[in-house]
Amino acid sequence: MTKVRRRRQLVCRWMPEGLEVGVPGRQQWVRLSPELVTVMERAGAGIEVDDLASGFGVEHEGAVRAAIDGLTLVGVLESPDGVREDPPLWGRWGGIAERFHTEARDADYLVDGPERAEEAGAIVAQGGAPDSFKQYPDRPVVLLPRQPLALNASVGWVFAGRRTHRRFTADPVSLDQLGTLLFHSFAPHRFTDAGVFGVQQCRVSASAGARHEVEAYVVVYQVTGVVPGLYHYSAARHALELLDDDVPRERVAELSYGQEASFQGAFTVLTTAVANRLAWKYRHPRAYRLWMYDAGHYGQTFALAATALGLGPFQTVAFQDSAVEDLLGVDPDEEFAVYLLAAGVPDAPTALLPGDFAFPPPSTVH
């Protein structure tokens, strides 16, 4: 080894004991003394080992060479030649994404056994369990029909017909359709005894530990019997709680980069994650993945239920997080935007194709 450089995509954190560097590809943090930080910094984008060692003076050259060897061994420094390059995705996604991926791997979920019971008991004993439901009790309320519409479409037809729609008619959606869609997508259907964790909800969508951290906010444009505006869907009351009566389509267009399907249907649903519902029970980095899975479960339930109701669903993650959170009036440290869903009466040429799609040309056999 004649030349070294600082490893690319390093992630650093400052702890009370000193600077720690996350080693790429390993669930490992290396604590660096101020002297080692200086060696790492001088290595920079590449330097001859002799030049790096001699730069600290003859009296320190041996110690510096030993430090270079040690930093190379743990992966903080590397040789530009003969070293396996990082996978391309980390060059595209960055060191923070790589660190998160590494930290989130191989978590011990304590699925069964005495350790699980002990940890669960300790969590409950600490108290501070977050509320299972979010409500705005002082806001005007639209009570939704308690009896949902029957979903008579066959499973096969719904699976075949589920598409992402981007063009809608100007026809309104009925209150019963909206209420049925919200009920199946976001409301508990029944409850279950979860032992030390108490009563938990059973919804259509899977949710890690039945924590159901996803909240739904509905921007109504054309729903029969509902004044346009921004509402919070109260899963506990099966009701819409009015937050703002002046949220036109243009405001949603601004936060969704002008994607027409996000605001041209009958309504838009902005979903969030109330993070502490998960973090209270799952206290390891891997749990950060869980709200992503859960948001996807909810999105698919929404799309399938909308299809069964004859509506065209749309979903996207292309939105400005901060703008959504500002609109909803939530604290992003506690509750953050995760998914944008929308639906309306589809402008579709067939039951199996959305309005902006066409059948592919016939195949040519050579």
Give structural notes.
The chain is α+β, with helices and mostly antiparallel strands. It folds into 2 domains: 3-103; 125-344, 3-Layer(aba) Sandwich (NADH Oxidase), CATH 3.40.109. The protein is 32% helix and 20% strand. It contains 12 helices and 15 strands. It has helices at residues 34-43, 49-54, 61-74, 88-93, 95-103, 114-126, 155-161, 175-186, 249-255, 275-279, 290-308, 321-328; strands at residues 3-6, 11-15, 18-22, 29-32, 47-48, 77-78, 141-143, 190-193, 199-202, 214-220, 229-234, 239-244, 267-274, 312-316, 335-344. A 7-stranded antiparallel β-sheet has the order 7-12-11-10-13-15-14, sandwiched between helices. Strand 11 (229-234) and strand 12 (239-244) form a beta hairpin. The protein is elongated. The mean pLDDT is 91.
Ordered list of secondary-structure elements with their pairings:
Layout: E1 3-6, E2 11-15, E3 18-22, E4 29-32, H1 34-43, E5 47-48, H2 49-54, H3 61-74, E6 77-78, H4 88-93, H5 95-103, H6 114-126, E7 141-143, H7 155-161, H8 175-186, E8 190-193, E9 199-202, E10 214-220, E11 229-234, E12 239-244, H9 249-255, E13 267-274, H10 275-279, H11 290-308, E14 312-316, H12 321-328, E15 335-344
Antiparallel strand pairs: 1-5, 1-6, 2-3, 3-4, 7-12, 8-9, 10-11, 10-13, 11-12, 13-15, 14-15
Helix pairs in contact: 7-11, 8-11
